[in-house]
Amino acid sequence: MKLYNKVIFITDADSPSGKAVVNRLSGEGTHFILNSMSEGALIKAELAKIQAAGSKAYVTNTDLCRAADVTAMLNQAEQILGPVDVLIHNNDLLIPALAESCKEDVFLEIMDTNAKSAFICSQAVGKQMAARQSGRIIYVSSIHAEKPTGSSFAYSASKGAVKMLSKEAALVLGRQGIQVNTIELGPVKGDNERFSSEFSALYDDYERKVPNELPSSYEDLGHLVLFLCSDETRYMNGSDIRLDGGFLLHYMDHKKKPAPSIGG
């Protein structure tokens, strides 16, 4: 077990990415702090798997944009599980929001959910980790920290903010033995609808824009998170890891991998 008795804090356990990470790490001796807006209703299968593995889970529904609430929750969880060893921030709110028409409240909601929560959580767990001179922070971000969506500039802005938060945190917290890295996740099933745009053809036939046409999944994310949590990555800090199968390397539609022929 690579992560025996480690405490992992996942900021959005209800999401597909959160569930995939729980499923991958639950067999590694890991205990979990799971922030769940459904208060556990949407993660019953994952909670059962954690219990079957002999591990513990602390389920909470905390406003991650309120520093006092996050600190109070972590203090309570520490009494039950111990201090946080790994923060996995995977908040990923997407709302259509064009630069010329986005309402201020929508912009702030996206920035708060995706970026402000990353700052609040990093500061709170950073204090716990600094006291032990050890810890890891992993931001599950998006390729749209670099590439415009064509559908939600506020989403891209929030992911860009997390990208730079990661760099600043790696520089400062790295002096306290804390590693900070970012995963920039590429397209998964359904993202062609999620990032539907009147201006961008990026997600049109997106599967064929991956060089080997290998479909991605959140399970791939789980494997990478486990690797970043492990001792094998002790020298990785301030890194951006693009997990997109080479999707962003695509540059011309006529260079897409050809569609398979039908018939003999």
Explain what you see.
Belongs to the short-chain dehydrogenases/reductases (SDR) family. It holds the Pfam family adh_short_C2. It comes from Paenibacillus sepulcri. This is SDR family oxidoreductase. The chain is α/β, with parallel strands linked by helices and 264 residues long. It has a single domain (7-245), classed as Rossmann fold (3-Layer(aba) Sandwich), CATH 3.40.50. It contains 7 helices and 7 strands, in the order βαβαβαβαβαβααβ. Strands 3-2-1-4-5-6-7 form a 7-stranded parallel sheet, with helices on both faces. α2 (44-52) links the parallel β2 and β3 (57-60). α4 (104-132) packs parallel to α5 (153-173). The longest helix has 29 residues, at 104-132. The protein is globular, with a radius of gyration of 19 Å.
Give the number of helices: 7
From the spread of the alpha carbons, the general shape counts as globular
Instruction: Give start-end ranges of low-pLDDT stretches.
Output: none
Radius of gyration: 19 Å
Kindly state the mean pLDDT as a whole number? 93
Largest sheet: 7 strands, parallel
Question: What tags apply to this protein structure?
Answer:
alpha/beta; Rossmann fold; 7 helices; globular
Could you write a compact summary of the structure shown?
With 264 residues, this protein is α/β, with parallel strands linked by helices.
